[in-house]
Design goal:
It is a single chain. By secondary structure, the protein is mainly alpha-helical. It has 4 helices and 2 strands; from the N terminus they run H-H-H-H-E-E. It has one domain. A hairpin with a 6-residue loop joins strand 1 and strand 2.
Length: about 130
């Protein structure tokens, strides 16, 4: 077993699986559109698992650990003002600082000294286009 904290394991998982964030965000916004003001992240995890199984043929190695539910809830609320307060969160046993994610591809990005997110070089390269 490695010595990574849950927060570190989550960040690594998110970097390797940005589509999970995209799907959870999409489902949360679907619920907002139909008038829901709050919902449980564990419920969204189960729907995500079901939809993946339903749309995938044969065996697949898609896995999402339940220990990541509080991290995704905090990350979604931190990056989408419309979702602020949408998920109930409790105290956690390790420090987690939600990070900014790119609006297009949802990979983690940094923050400028002003507090504004930095550009995602994959989606908006500073040199102005493809190489």
């Amino acid at each position: 077993m490695d010595n990574q904290t849950k927060s570190q394991r989550f960040r690594k998982y998110h970097q390797q699986n940005p589509r999970v964030y995209r799907e959870l965000r999409s489902m949360a916004f679907d619920l907002l559109r139909v008038g829901r003001t709050h919902y449980g992240m564990k419920g969204l995890f189960e729907v995500l698992r079901y939809e993946h199984a339903r749309l995938t043929r044969g065996e697949d190695d898609f896995k999402i650990n339940n220990i990541f539910t509080p991290y995704y809830a905090r990350l979604l609320m931190a990056n989408s003002k419309e979702l602020d307060g949408f998920f109930e969160v409790r105290s956690m046993d390790d420090e987690f600082q939600p990070f900014h994610v790119c609006d297009k591809c949802h990979v983690p990005i940094g923050v400028q000294p002003s507090g504004e997110p930095t550009l995602c070089w994959d989606c908006d390269p500073p040199w102005g286009g493809e190489i």
